[in-house]
Structure formats: structure tokens, C-alpha cells
Amino acid sequence: MSNIGDYKERLAHSDWSEVHEELDYRPEGILNIGWHCSDRICRQGKGDKLALLWENVCGHEKRYTFNELRLASNTIGAHLRKLGIRDEDRVCLFMDRIPELYIGFLGILKIGAVAQPLFSAFGDESLFVRLDNAGTRAILTQRKHVGKVRKILDRLPQLEHIIIVDHDGKKALEDRESVFNLAEAETVDAFDIFPTRAESPSVLHYTSGTTGQPKGVQHVHYSLISQYLTTKWVLDLQENDIYWCTADPGWVTGTSYGIIGPWSLGITQCVLDAGFSAEAWYRFIDKHSISMWYSAPTAIRSLMKAGEEVVKRADLSSLRHLASVGEPLNAEAVIWSERVLGKPFLDTYWQTETGSIMITNLPGMPIKPGSMGKCFPGIQGAVLNAKTFEPITEPGIVGLIGFRPGWPAMMRGYWKNEKVYQEKFRNGWYLPGDRAKLDAEGYFWFVGRDDDVINTGGHLISPFEVESALLEYEAVAESAVVAKPDEVNMEVVKAYVLLKDGYLANQDTELEIMNFIRKKLSPLAMPQEIEFVGSLPKTRSGKIMRRILHAREWGEEIGDTSTLEDDE
Ligand code: PRX
Predict the structure, then answer these.
(1) Of residues 94, 124, 249, the one with CA closest to residue 525
(2) CATH of 7-436, one of 3.40.1190.10, 3.40.50.12780, 3.30.450.30, 3.40.220.10
(3) Of 5, 243, 482, 507, which has the fewest beta carbons less than 10 angstroms from its beta carbon?
């Protein structure tokens, strides 16, 4: 029996406040995600239950019970407090998927500070713009990543503490650096958790848009309500489940559903701190008897590519429920998983700004492979006419996705960017920036993004950020960055580059530029192809027309270029 029971009944009715009591929350009272995910679970008598089972690439394991999670997050919180970190200060987590990342996240929230997780593969420039914008006061990081922080430290006067969580005492510390080894720190049992309320800030995730620098999406502790209920009903986590979310907490899936969702329900979760390998992934499921698996379409397509022989080498019979997020989940992937893994992946749609699942296939609901499903109970969503912003009632007509604001996990703003935040609303609807169509039964079918943002393997890349970085490479005069189709990642980054006089358009230059972007931004933002051109299509006032290049990549009609000649 699924947690949601009769999905039809739920679809007809949902009131978020119904879960207040279940979560021991009284309106106006204290609400702290750190406490809810550890202390509260211990209070329920589950202190000895396994909370985290962590494994790295060498197969080395670490295990933490909910009580150990409570103690360890107290200990990190107390350490930060001792350093002078206060409520609402931004504390960055810049680590691989090691236990300190998950525990540190709760510790930061327990002192009322704001957790700012950043993907550890980010290069120094990606790191700089996000730390600078957030005015981050402290960063928890690892020895292997501290070099990137050192490179940008001069430009970050507000960053007072660089805390290294795995220092071996061998290398000397530099300016503003200190060491914190969880295993050696004195455990803090009794801890005064900061009395955060529903609207107190909790998490700051950075996301990329078409223009400008990345935006800090501000969440509050009340997001827990949506994250808890969606985890319960969509991911259907039940007491004895062993859960695996493959997302990195540098991105929103890894926090909403890789920390908050499962732990607020007191569920055991596994973390594999290693890159993708079909064999290793199947072995991981087999070894730990994983029963619920939340992953992403690119990973699923990579598994499909790896073939069926490798599936047969593992026992996957523990799997009882699968779900996916981040990019379009093609019908073939759903059909494949049902045939080969015995269960279909349920598609879920949401984004950093929404904080929790918005459109989804619910347990028990008939799946239409290729469709994202319906609005989660309590979410009012529509497909809107792009000019009037009125709902389109006719099925099959493409429009903009829109949601009526008001669900608990909705972002409360973009950090220091009220103007862009306001631009996300039209006619009372929040616009996530995606296009879709509805069918006669109210299922949503994803069509594409409504901007130039590139979604590569579920990661959003801003063409602006890549173009800005390209211009810093000495040989580049101009560039335009667009998405190029890719069999596995759906989209990859492609750069059109105009070189300065005297530079050679050859493979060496291409590789040098790729490497430059990989180090400066991240491996995800690195162009998979660079095409050297003599000129770039521009409007009369000199704005580069990415749309023409995009259409060329996708073999689409360019349409009426006379309108493109003018700035819109
Ligand atoms: O374009 C949509 C796409 O990913 C965007 C959100 O990206 P991000 O904020 O990084 O959050 C990713 C994980 C929640 C969306 O605006 N997207 C997300 N889920 C789907 C999707 N596109 C198609 N189908 C989905 N299920």
C-alpha cells in the first residue's frame, strides 16, 4: 500500500497545514529543519536507526545513526558558533559527497545560519561569483578544494573563515584557514538550537539564468512542509525503505530530497561518493538492498547505453519504487526501466525556485510514458498563453507553465535581486520559464525551456556565464554559446568563437579553450565543441543572436529573421 493511498481522492483535496501536527509544528512556533531531521527523529525513539550509509569509490563505508547525526550536527553547529557565526550568516558547503557535507548542512541550520551548498567541481570563478554575491562569511571545505578558495581570497574580504574538514596536519594553513575534524572534536550533546521560525532563511542555492550572473534562490525553514509531504507521497518512503538519491547536494535535488525529505521522515539513506558507472551503481543497489531510488534521465540513459548484461550481474529485486527529475524523461527510458528493472521511473518536475516537486506521476496513477504527470495535490498549475498569461484550456496547445504562488517551499526571493524575482510573475502566476502542453486528461507534456539556458544532464548552464568566461581567454574576441543535441545528456554546451587576429583556429586552440573553461567554471560548463567562425549573427545594435545558432544546431527553421534583426 502506498503512502498516498487513493491518489484521486488526494488530487481533489490538499491542505498543506494538515501535516503541521504530523511534523510537531505549531504555527508561529519554532521550526528548524536541522532539529526536525535529527533530534525529532530521536525523540520518536529512532535514535539507533541508521540515518546515513556512506560509501566512497574504494568501497570504504561510514555509518551514522539518527542519534549520531544529531550529535555530529550539534558538534559542527557549536564549532561554527564558537567562530562567531550567527543566525542568517551565509555558510558555504564546498565539498564532495562526504558525510560532513550532509551533517554540516544540518549543523548550519541548527544555529540559524543559511546553508549555501556549492558543487565541488566548480572552478575558482564559479565559486567566486557565488561567494561574492552571497557575502558568505565561512566556508566548509576539503584539502583538495582549498586551492580554489585561496585563488580568490583577495577578492573576498567578507569571507572570514575557511574551515578544512579533512586536514591531515601536514601542510601549513594559510590566511583565514582553520581545521575542524569531526572525529576528533568533542561531541556536543546538549545544544541550544537557534529558534528559527517558518519564515527564517534556511538554504541559498544558486541557479543560472540566460542573462546576468547566477541568482541566489532564497528558501526558508517552512519549505520543510512541502519537502516532507512530497517525499511521503511521491517518493513514497516507508519505514523500512533504504533510499538512494543520486543527486549531489550542490544542487537542489540533493538537499530537498537528498537530505531534508528522507531524514524528516526518519528514513535510512545511502550515499555513493563516486562518479557514474553502471556496474558500480547496480552493485551499490544490490549490496545495500536499496528499495527507493531517485535519479535523473541522463543517468538512466547512460544505464540504457551500458546494456542489459550488466543488469543481470546484480540482484536488483530490492527495488520497489523509482523516480526521476531534472530533464525530460523520454518515453523509451520509462518503458526500458519497466522492462529491465521491473519498475517504471516516475517522472517528477520542479526546479530550484520551487523547492519541491510540482508536477509528478503519483503512485497508483496511470503513467503515460513521456509525460511529467499532473500537479501535486495542493499545487495549482496551468499552461498559459504566452501573451495574455491566461490558462489555455484546449488540450495540445503549447504555452508557458505557470503556478499560483503560495506553496510552502516556494522561494522567497532572489538574493539581492528583487527586480528579477518580480519578473518571474505575470497575472498572478509564477513562471518557471518552461513550455509545455496539457492533454485532455490534464497530464503535462514538457516541450522545452522558454529561454537560452542549457540543461546538460540535468544541470542548468547559463550561456552568459560561459561567454563571459570565454572572453577572459586571451585569444577570444567574441563568442556565442548554445545547446547542441546529445544522445545521453540531451543537451551539451557548444561555443561559437571568433578569434582575435593572429590566433590559429586549430585543435590545439580548441582544447586549450575547453580546458580553460573546465578549470574556471566547471566540467559541466565546458563546451563539448568549439566552432571557430569568421563572424557571429547579430542584431543591428550588435547583440548576438543565439537563436539563429541554436536553430542551426537543432536543424530547426530559423523563422522570420527580419524581426531578429531588431533588438526585442
Ligand atoms: O527546465 C526544467 C528542467 O530543469 C529546470 C530546473 O532546473 P534546476 O533548477 O537546476 O532544478 C533541477 C532539479 C529540480 C526546470 O525549469 N526540468 C526539471 N525537471 C524536469 C525538467 N524538464 C523536463 N522534465 C522534468 N521532469
Answers:
(1) 124
(2) 3.40.50.12780
(3) 507
Ligand 1 center–CA 350 separation, angstroms:
5
User: What cell does 182 get?
Assistant: 569531526
Whether 443 contacts 373, CB under 8 Å: yes
User: Is the CB–ligand 1 distance for residue 248 below 6 Å?
Assistant: no
- For the chain, give every residue range classified as CATH 3.40.50.12780: 7-436
For ligand 1, atom 14, the nearest C-alpha belongs to 351
- CB distance 290 to ligand 1 below 6 Å: no
Q: Whose CA is nearest to atom 22 of ligand 1?
A: 327
pLDDT tens-digit series, residues 424-452: 999 999 999 999 999 999 999 999 999 99
389-401 residues labelled b (16+ CB within 10 A) or e (exposed): bebbeeeeeebbb
Q: Is 328 in the pocket of ligand 1 (CB under 6 A)?
A: yes
Ligand 1 atom nearest residue 350's Cα: 14
Question: Would you say 128 and 150 are in contact if contact means Cβ atoms under 8 Å apart?
Answer: no
Q: At what angle do helices 124-134 and 143-152 cross, to 10 degrees?
A: 70
Evaluate whether 525 touches 517 at the Cβ level (below 8 Å): yes
Whether the pTM exceeds 0.85: the reply is yes
What's the pLDDT score for residue 567? 43
Q: Quick one: pLDDT band at residue 540, thresholds 50, 70, 90? A: confident
Q: What is the distance between the alpha carbons of residues 375 and 382, in angstroms, rounded to a whole number?
A: 9
**d(CA 448, ligand 1 centre) in Å:** 10
* Closest residue by Cα to residue 141 from 79, 187, 91, 185: 91
The rounded Å distance from CA 253 to ligand 1 centre is 10
The reply to whether ligand 1 has any atom less than 6 angstroms from the CB of 460 is: yes
What whole-number distance in Å separates Cα of residue 198 and Cα of residue 412? Answer: 12
Ligand 1 atom, smallest distance to 251 CA: 10
Instruction: Answer for the pair 322, 311: CB distance below 8 angstroms, yes or no.
Output: no
Q: Give the residue from 348, 536, 443, 409 showing the smallest Cα distance to 31.
A: 409
Strand, coil or helix: what is 121?
Answer: coil
Pocket lining: 381 vs ligand 1, CB cutoff 6 Å = no
